[in-house]
Amino acid sequence: MEFIRRLRVPPIDDTLDAALHQKIDQKTKPLGALGQLERLAFQVARIQGSMTPTLKNPYILVFAGDHGVAKSGVSAYPQDVTWQMVHNFLQGGAAINVFARQHNISMRVIDAGVNHEFEDHPQLVKGKIGPGTANFLEQPAMSEELCEKALRLGAAQVDAIAEEGCNVLGFGEMGIGNTSSASMLMSYLLDVPLEHCVGRGTGLSDEQFEHKVKLLQQAAEKYPNLKSPIDILQTFAGFEIVAMVGGILRAAQNRMLVLIDGFIATAAYLAAYKLAPAIGEYAIFCHRSMEQGHQHMLEALKADPILKMDLRLGEGTGCALAYPLLQSSLNFFNEMASFADAGVSEKS
Ligand SMILES: O=C(O)c1ccc[n+]([C@@H]2O[C@H](COP(=O)([O-])O)[C@@H](O)[C@H]2O)c1
Ligand SMILES: Cc1cc2nc[nH]c2cc1C
């Protein structure tokens, strides 16, 4: 696939590493006392190759898409909620709008494949690849051609905000049924049994959850030999998930800081990581979702999420909530006095 063949994620230059560690260790605090904030500041400074890293023009991109599998009763909510929530995002009334406003984060909503025609709106990107995916219980979710189109859609949106001076962006999503997609991706990409990957999504009852597990097990039996990340995406992903994969890859290629939200965004990250492991240096995992499966996925990725708030919403809410902590990490790095500046005695 042309998009994948052209992929070049720049490796991180480690020439500043010793100076960065020294700068952190000379701040007026016991060694290591700012914990994860120190690791975050170090990571961002390395990505930017700078002793004075900054967050510029932050964005949250919310990718939306519908899923054929939603018709098989795998979600607690009807498929129409996808377009209704897109409408809500554009009206400014969803959780992500509230948190993004609170932290001055810009937002854009990308219709990657919602089964609805939207009016024009300044915050909406009309990128519909199709009116939802095919039901993967019956046939692969999308063709290779549409998969590549969705990758390019996500990459183009990231390029557009990079041109606006953005160097940090969060990936969020909306799509009824997409925890089913994400569970399938996780199981195939990590080669772990489905039981570890399937959860209650929007809030299934015990009975509904059993039904979801049974259907997803049937899907796994239907496709025993999928190996490549692109084949796995084509078979099970949604257009919003594939667009996130393209966006994550392009963001790393552009040396932007990649903020990953919950279970579905992490599944997209996992596919991107399998395609280009060098993106690992650019990613920050914002929170650990309540969706069972996310914990296993984060462990497999050796990720250290910033927040544990029992969220299971998506939309990029974890990214918006973690953002001020990321900002604090750079503020301490750039503004805090050193032992020498402040005349404080160092460790004896
Ligand atoms: O981000 C998460 O960890 C998360 C966990 C559970 C559900 N969601 C959201 O809920 C929707 C998918 O849930 P479901 O039950 O319809 O598969 C989709 O719109 C996601 O944004 C999101
Ligand atoms: C109401 C609602 C809002 C959401 N936001 C992200 N996923 C969602 C799923 C539902 C059901």
Automatic annotation (TrEMBL):
Its EC number is 2.4.2.21. The active site is at residue 315. It catalyses: 5,6-dimethylbenzimidazole + nicotinate beta-D-ribonucleotide = alpha-ribazole 5'-phosphate + nicotinate + H(+). NCBIfam families: cobT_DBIPRT, PRK00105.1. Keywords: Cobalamin biosynthesis, Glycosyltransferase, Transferase. Catalyzes the synthesis of alpha-ribazole-5'-phosphate from nicotinate mononucleotide (NAMN) and 5,6-dimethylbenzimidazole (DMB). Pathway: Nucleoside biosynthesis; alpha-ribazole biosynthesis; alpha-ribazole from 5,6-dimethylbenzimidazole: step 1/2. Belongs to the CobT family. It is an enzyme of class 2 (transferase). GO terms for biological process: cobalamin biosynthetic process. Gene3D superfamilies: 1.10.1610.10, 3.40.50.10210. It comes from the Bacteria. This is Nicotinate-nucleotide--dimethylbenzimidazole phosphoribosyltransferase. GO terms for molecular function: nicotinate-nucleotide-dimethylbenzimidazole phosphoribosyltransferase activity. The keyword Glycosyltransferase applies. It comes from Hahella chejuensis (strain KCTC 2396). InterPro entries: Nict_dMeBzImd_PRibTrfase, Nict_dMeBzImd_PRibTrfase_bact, Nict_dMeBzImd_PRibTrfase_N, Nict_dMeBzImd_PRibTrfase_sf. SUPFAM superfamilies: Nicotinate mononucleotide:5,6-dimethylbenzimidazole phosphoribosyltransferase (CobT).
